[in-house]
Specification:
The complex is a heterodimer of chains A (about 120) and B (about 120). Chain A is mainly β and about 120 residues long. Chain A has no helices and twelve strands. In chain A, strands 2, 5, 6, 10, 11 and 12 form a six-stranded mixed β-sheet that branches. Chain B is mainly β. Chain B is about 0% helix and about 50% strand. In chain B, a hairpin with a 2-residue loop joins strand 5 and strand 6. The model of chain B has no long low-confidence stretch (mean pLDDT about 90). The chains are: A mainly beta (about 120), B mainly beta (about 120). At the A-B interface, strand 5 of A face strand 4, strand 5, strand 9 and strand 10 of B.
């Protein structure tokens, strides 16, 4: 069965600190997609990144970076020099290419960045 | 601009009432999904549809019903059989996995409260 685990329920940092959000997944499929979403207080889910299972290259987008390691089934998300606007709930999710295409979400990590 | 529109943003339901949440997309996506989010929890799949006139139960379909008469529309009815309907409901759509822009688009959500 597919499963996504975000072990960190809440993280609190002070502005300008770096923070890493962990994501561990389980799947039997060889072709799958991993996602990160940001949910600000307004509730809408904002797409951050998609990574397919054949692409293990790390990615950097501004202050955001992602580390995908198939060997440990992890897809961790790092925010460098955090800002108050980064405060939100962050979800990691898994989708398999075949079948329903539905997203399996982790429980989410609430990040609070204090000024 | 293409996107997903959910309405209403807030909805209040009396005990024993059925209510319908609207979800409309203009992205020409075949697949549409309904998720439920409870406070402090991840998203759970209620129903999904991969093509017009066809839909499937998700993980928590009891007490809900859907229809998919048009590609653009995927309304969700919360029936009186749903014993604990107070939650945040998110609708999403997605293109085919092989699409270069594969990735879910979410609506802004409907917050349903039983009064």
């Amino acid at each position: 069965a597919q499963k996504v685990t975000q072990a960190q329920t809440e993280i609190s940092v002070v502005e300008k600190e770096d923070v890493t959000l962990d994501c561990v997944y389980e799947t039997r499929d060889t072709t799958y997609y991993l996602f990160w979403y940001k949910q600000p207080p307004s509730g809408e889910l904002v797409f951050l990144i998609r990574r397919n299972s054949f692409d293990e290259q790390n990615e950097i987008s501004g202050r955001y970076s992602w580390n995908f390691q198939k060997s440990t089934s992890s897809f961790n998300f790092t925010i460098t020099a955090s800002q108050v606007v980064d405060s939100a709930v962050y979800f990691c999710a898994l989708s398999e290419e075949r079948g329903t295409g539905k997203l399996i979400f982790g429980q989410g990590t609430t990040l609070q960045v204090k000024p | 601009d293409g996107g997903i529109t959910q309405s209403p943003k807030y909805l209040f339901r009396k005990e024993g009432q059925n209510v319908t949440l609207s979800c409309e997309q203009n992205l020409n996506h075949d697949a549409m999904y309904w998720y439920r989010q409870d406070p402090g929890q991840g998203l759970r799949l209620i129903y999904y549809s991969q093509i017009v006139n066809d839909f499937q139960k998700g993980d928590i379909a009891e007490g809900y019903s859907v229809s998919r008469e048009k590609k653009e529309s995927f309304p969700l009815t919360v029936t009186s059989a749903q014993k604990n309907p107070t939650a945040f409901y998110l609708c999403a759509s997605n293109g085919p996995p092989g699409d270069a822009n594969y990735g879910y688009t979410f609506g802004s959500g409907t917050r349903l409260t039983v009064v």
